[in-house]
């Protein structure tokens, strides 16, 4: 095979970020990156990663370029190795990745990033993968990335097999079937201080509430799945806020404590609750960073955005509708 630059082992893929409405935190198997609990998310149209993978005879090592800067390859090599193994390929790869939003700030850049990588690397290597296989592959990089293989509403199963092969995401509902909007209030565009992977290790090792949280997850997922399939925003929103606050309660009780919120994050929580008290159906969620994401009907997004943008410390808001599945955008 010709692996020179401009040869036929290059592909570019786009994947969108996602926000979990029922959260994952902690691993059943750290090596295979199998989550301890299932999770349910929505894929966002406005936040995406574009990734080009080129397998190239001229490279001695894999390379990762993120937003124009060379970075340590890290778990990217895990995904590339799995693709090389399946394709019977012995070439190193250059991975060039661009986010249209701040990287590593709790906006799920690892989700869109590893989903785009899984799809681009597979296509560049010239092998076929079903969406389920792509989801398992993306999960090896970052568990939330398993969900970004799909658009709309997606569920990632925790699975129970020792090899992690039944821990994949699948579509729950098409975005068009129940359009919702998310307003992201960016309160700090800088990278987070503790990565998700390190944070979850610390939580599972030290929070006294971690086990009960894991045990309560399946019932929460069942309720969330049913509420989404019923297009019931009030129940989805109530469950999403509870899942978020339960997650942050195990973060806060980690030793040392994981406090991802800042003052503007907390002000955002109160602003969302005030809007709701005024009759507007809007609900918050927050991940491993200080950004607040507000879930609402598309027709209410402008009012939600204006309320969040007025909070001191909110640098920017971005409104998104639900986004599509990860896909190959070019192949040469
Ligand atoms: C709080 O998927 O980034 O966003 O699998 O270690 O890469 P790794 O973690 P990651 O964690 C996401 C955590 C979360 C909740 C969620 O998206 O379910």
Task: Provide keyphrases for this structure.
Ribosomal Protein S5, domain 2, about 325 residues, four-stranded antiparallel β-sheet, Alpha-Beta Plaits, globular, alpha+beta
Report on the architecture of this protein.
- This protein has 2 domains: about 10-175, Ribosomal Protein S5, domain 2 (2-Layer Sandwich), CATH 3.30.230.10; about 180-320, GHMP kinase, C-terminal domain (Alpha-Beta Plaits).
- The protein is about 35% helix and about 25% strand.
- The protein has helices at about 75-85, 110-125, 130-140, 195-205, 210-230, 235-250, 265-275, 300-310, and strands at about 10-20, 25-30, 35, 40-55, 65, 70, 90-100, 155, 170-175, 180-185, 280-285, 290-295, 315-320, 325-330.
- The strands form 3 sheets. Strands 1, 4, 5, 6, 7, 8, 9 and 14 form an 8-stranded mixed β-sheet that branches. It has a 4-stranded antiparallel β-sheet with strand order 11-12-10-13. A two-stranded antiparallel sheet has the order 2-3.
- A hairpin with a 2-residue loop joins β5 (about 65) and β6.
- Ligand DP6 binds next to α4.
- Keywords: ATP-binding, Lipid biosynthesis, Lipid metabolism, Lyase, Nucleotide-binding.
- It is an enzyme of class 4 (lyase).
- InterPro entries: GHMP_kinase_C_sf, Mev_decarb, Mev_diP_decarb, MVD-like_N, Mvd1_C, Ribosomal_Su5_D2-typ_SF, Ribsml_uS5_D2-typ_fold_subgr.
- Its EC number is 4.1.1.33.
């Amino acid at each position: 095979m010709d692996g020179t630059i401009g040869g036929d082992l290059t592909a570019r893929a786009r994947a969108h970020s996602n926000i979990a409405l029922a959260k994952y935190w902690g691993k059943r198997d750290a090596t295979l990156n199998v989550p301890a609990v299932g999770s349910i998310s929505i894929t966002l149209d406005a936040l995406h990663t574009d990734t080009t993978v080129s397998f190239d005879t001229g490279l001695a090592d894999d390379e990762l370029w993120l937003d124009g800067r060379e970075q340590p390859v890290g778990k990217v090599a895990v995904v590339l190795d799995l693709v090389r193994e399946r394709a019977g390929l012995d070439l190193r790869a250059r991975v060039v990745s661009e986010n249209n939003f701040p990287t590593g700030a709790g906006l799920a850049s690892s989700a869109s990033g590893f989903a785009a990588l899984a799809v681009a690397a597979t296509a560049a290597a010239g092998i076929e993968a079903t969406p389920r296989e792509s989801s398992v592959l993306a999960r090896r990089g970052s568990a939330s990335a398993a969900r970004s293989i799909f658009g709309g509403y997606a569920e990632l199963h925790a699975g129970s097999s020792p090899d992690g092969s039944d821990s994949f995401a699948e579509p729950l509902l098409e975005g068009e079937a129940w359009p919702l909007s998310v307003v992201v209030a960016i309160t700090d565009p800088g990278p987070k201080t503790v990565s998700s992977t390190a944070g979850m290790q610390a939580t599972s090792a030290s929070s006294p509430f971690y086990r009960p949280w894991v045990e309560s997850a399946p019932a929460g997922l069942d309720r969330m799945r049913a509420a989404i399939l019923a297009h019931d925003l009030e129940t989805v929103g109530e469950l999403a806020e509870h899942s978020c606050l339960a997650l942050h309660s195990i973060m806060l009780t980690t030793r040392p404590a994981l406090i991802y919120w800042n003052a503007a994050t907390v002000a955002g929580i109160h602003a969302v609750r005030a809007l709701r008290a005024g009759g507007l159906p809007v609900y918050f969620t927050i991940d491993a960073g200080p950004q607040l994401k507000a879930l609402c009907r598309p027709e209410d997004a402008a009012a939600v955005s204006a309320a969040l943008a007025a909070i001191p410390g909110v640098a920017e808001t971005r409104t998104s509708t639900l986004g599509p599945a990860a896909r190959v955008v070019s192949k040469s």
